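Dear H.,

Thanks for agreeing to be a second pair of eyes. The structure we're designing against is below in token form, covering all 469 positions.
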């Protein structure tokens, strides 16, 4: 994977053009290797890695297209920029279709080379961020969004998403409001072969029944009152990409029947039109309802449910992955780190405040946590968020949390969490995550099994433990 642009290979049989390119690249702090033919370039690339290569399209012996094919066949990640004369631009465009990064048309200026370099650096930087976030936290997604978490539920979801992304199957994503269903859909699209195609979203709950047909399938001019011009529907816009039907349970039965036909036949007609339009759109649907109950109640078509439910995915609620809360809090602080005066704010959440956040059930899930952290990042000017800055509804829940009989209740205005209690909660959650397996729990917590056994015996003297412990 290319994560920086520091080395370049210039391949051109024109001495003056090659020298011009080498000088321009070196002026931009790029280490350059040069050669006059494709065979030498092939040998050089077998001996060392290059971040970017500028390859002349027409050379004696091995030409630019043949060299590009060799680079791709060898699995090299080098960004290849084709250099071409005006009369062979079509060949350069063809080269981009088979894997070239960009092309330059002779004659060109140093500024044009620098534009390509800057764009390549931005691309490489994004690759580096994506690689880090995928390894450490999740996936970096378009629009600055992320899926973050290391909990078993999120890890399992990510594995499923990677498997699903490689197919074109219809996916039904379930989960409570605010869990991040749309982000999961965007991750599937981003990791799929359709990533370069459009990602089109339609919130079925926000579209009136009378406009649902037009929004999905489009309409012809004069199809109904107010249809002053032809409108392209979401299915057409998503051609060769992905269509997200958010809250699909809110779609009326008449439109459900038309949707079923598109899913089965991949074709439809615009409202008021007679021409059949074929589309290649992958459909991902989300719902926070129990669609099986909707089917039993006659509110959702059974055949459509089975057609959407080819690959079901469930996004866990935040209360079911509490161990991800510190990661999410840190990510939101980074995102909202600019304060009211436009100055960076270096914030941290102290242990007492974090304990409150970990214990709160978060009925609004990640969205509720995100909104709260944005408010705190904007309003707080200090360096630490303590228990006094936590909103009353969250702090109040922590104070009212049930206690063991052997543990005194917190006084008014105090947090009910001590360090031993936080330790106990951590061990109990780890046991739950491993299904009561003490060896795996000890490995997860990075403690010895003897220490874990002693801790559990200590807890039994003060509070009853779950049977699995």
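And this is the sequence the design step returned. I haven't edited it by hand at all.
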């Amino acid at each position: 994977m290319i994560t920086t642009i520091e080395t370049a290979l210039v391949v051109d049989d024109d001495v003056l053009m090659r020298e011009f390119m080498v000088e321009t690249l070196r002026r931009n702090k790029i280490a350059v290797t040069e050669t006059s033919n494709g065979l030498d370039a092939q040998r050089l690339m077998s001996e060392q890695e290059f971040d970017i290569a500028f390859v002349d399209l027409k050379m004696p012996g091995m030409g630019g297209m043949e060299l590009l094919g060799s680079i791709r066949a060898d699995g090299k990640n080098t960004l290849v920029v084709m250099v071409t004369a005006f009369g062979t631009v079509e060949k350069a465009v063809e080269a981009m279709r088979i894997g070239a990064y960009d092309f330059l048309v002779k004659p060109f200026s140093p500024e044009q080379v620098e534009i390509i370099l800057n764009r390549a650096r931005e691309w490489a930087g994004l690759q580096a961020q994506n690689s880090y976030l995928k390894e450490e936290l999740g996936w970096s997604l378009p629009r600055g969004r992320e899926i973050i978490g290391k909990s078993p539920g999120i890890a399992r979801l990510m594995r499923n998403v990677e498997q699903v992304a490689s197919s074109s199957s219809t996916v039904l994503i379930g989960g409570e409001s605010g869990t991040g269903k749309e982000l999961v859909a965007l991750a599937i699209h981003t990791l799929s072969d359709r990533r370069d195609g459009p990602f089109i979203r339609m919130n079925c709950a926000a579209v009136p029944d009378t406009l649902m047909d037009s929004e999905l399938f489009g309409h012809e001019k004069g199809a109904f009152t107010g249809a002053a011009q032809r409108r392209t529907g979401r299915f057409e816009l998503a051609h060769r990409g992905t269509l997200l039907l958010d809250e699909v349970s809110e779609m009326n039965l008449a439109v459900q029947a038309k949707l079923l036909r598109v899913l089965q036949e991949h074709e439809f007609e615009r409202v008021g039109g007679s021409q059949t339009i074929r589309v290649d759109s992958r459909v991902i649907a989300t719902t926070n309802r129990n669609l099986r109950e909707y089917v039993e109640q006659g509110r959702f078509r059974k055949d459509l449910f089975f057609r959407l439910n080819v690959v079901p995915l469930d996004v866990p609620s935040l209360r079911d992955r509490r161990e991800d809360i510190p990661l999410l809090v840190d990510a939101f602080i980074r995102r909202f780190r600019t304060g009211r005066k436009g100055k960076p704010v270096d914030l941290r959440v102290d242990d007492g405040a974090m304990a409150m956040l970990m214990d709160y059930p978060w009925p609004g899930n990640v969205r509720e946590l995100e909104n709260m952290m944005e408010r705190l990042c904007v309003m707080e000017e200090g360096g630490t968020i303590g228990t006094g800055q936590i909103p009353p509804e969250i702090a109040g829940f922590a104070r009212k949390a049930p206690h063991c009989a052997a543990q005194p209740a917190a006084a008014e205005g105090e947090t009910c969490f001590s360090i031993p209690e936080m330790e106990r909660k951590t061990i109990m959650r780890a046991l739950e995550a491993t299904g009561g397996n003490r060896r795996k729990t000890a490995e997860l917590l990075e403690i010895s099994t003897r220490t874990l056994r002693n801790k559990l015996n200590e807890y039994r003297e003060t509070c009853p433990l779950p049977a699995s412990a």
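Two observations from my side: Residues 356 and 398 are 6 Å apart (CA to CA). Residues 110-136 form the longest helix (27 residues).

Warmly,
E.
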